[in-house]
């Protein structure tokens, strides 16, 4: 066995007798990188010719593959939305109202987001909180107005809900004033322009989204046909505007949306009129669609009962300018709802698309493609609902002006008696009404004796 050598001296860079440069040393990390970059050797890995563990990056998708994938995603989510919508429609009015509420909250969030400046929002602590506060206050006011109008006969006889119902508008206004005071108190020097522009933007979003959603909910309360028909007309018009535009579209319609053509615009109008009549013919057969809501627990199986609006009753019309001797008949009998359907279909074809044009202009202003990505393959919720908000508002005002039957209801009579009469006058009304019902044998005579005793007390 060889003995270890002692006093061995190693030659350093400066003491190399042959003036040969020493090979640079390598750190552990550099050695590792070199080992991974160079082909493996038998002594290192135990086998020759082994390849690196790194897998090659997948090739980028072509435009065709991207469009195909987007088409699949868009189709799947279209059926998901249709399934959810029809489930809520048949489940009852309450589920549709919940759906509308979710749509308006998501749309409000998307519209607010495109104007937000995150860097400034971080330095202003209560900017987002004020946005949601004003949304909640507006929804409380508008939903309360609808509930009080359609369910007076329930609210006005409840001891707890009566003060909230009679003072609803004052309570809502004070809630808004508190938010307004808080906004003014939160103004900070150097951020005035951003804060006031954000304040104006919030109110625009509240008006265009929450305000119009309020009218859509009122349409639900008046009867499902006044909700479903406008929605279906807009969808039909959108589909056939695309199909007709792709098939024979040549003439541009409006600069803000260069893909829209006059041929698609007019072709969609024709098919919307046609399919609108077909859908109306199917819906007028069911009282579930034509009756105003009087029970939020009703569904398609339980149905609704009511005296139908006169527009659903066949009416005979006489054409005055046709001579009686002609072979053409001068009298026609049909349900007036078909005429109103043609008017609403025209609104859906000629006016509702401008809600989409407005949204397109807004997106071009902020240089964005979609309002968000709430619906995979479709973009944001606002991208799908821009025309629906406008059409729902048009339908509500058209219905209120030309279709609604204004007559006294239990709720309106109770409201007039409770808010406009003194307690003594209310008792007198009850006594007179009770006597009338007894005389008509609708109530037992003992009720009058009971009322007389209570009045003496």
TrEMBL record:
Reaction catalyzed: a 1,2-diacyl-sn-glycero-3-phosphate + CTP + H(+) = a CDP-1,2-diacyl-sn-glycerol + diphosphate
Keywords: Lipid biosynthesis, Lipid metabolism, Membrane, Nucleotidyltransferase, Phospholipid biosynthesis, Phospholipid metabolism, Transferase, Transmembrane, Transmembrane helix
InterPro entries: PC_trans, PC_Trfase_euk
One Pfam assignment: CTP_transf_1
Location of region: Disordered: 1-64
EC number, UniProt record: 2.7.7.41
Record localization: Membrane
Membrane topology: Multi-pass membrane protein
UniProt biased composition (Basic and acidic residues): 1-10
Ranges that cross the membrane: 71-90, 96-118, 130-150, 170-187, 199-217, 223-244, 265-284, 337-359
Pathway recorded for this protein: Phospholipid metabolism; CDP-diacylglycerol biosynthesis; CDP-diacylglycerol from sn-glycerol 3-phosphate: step 3/3; Lipid metabolism
Any GO BP: CDP-diacylglycerol biosynthetic process
Single Gene Ontology MF annotation: phosphatidate cytidylyltransferase activity
Gene Ontology CC terms: endoplasmic reticulum membrane
Family in the record: Belongs to the CDS family.
Protein name (database record): Phosphatidate cytidylyltransferase
Species: Bimuria novae-zelandiae CBS 107.79
Taxonomic classification: Eukaryota, Fungi, Dikarya, Ascomycota, Pezizomycotina
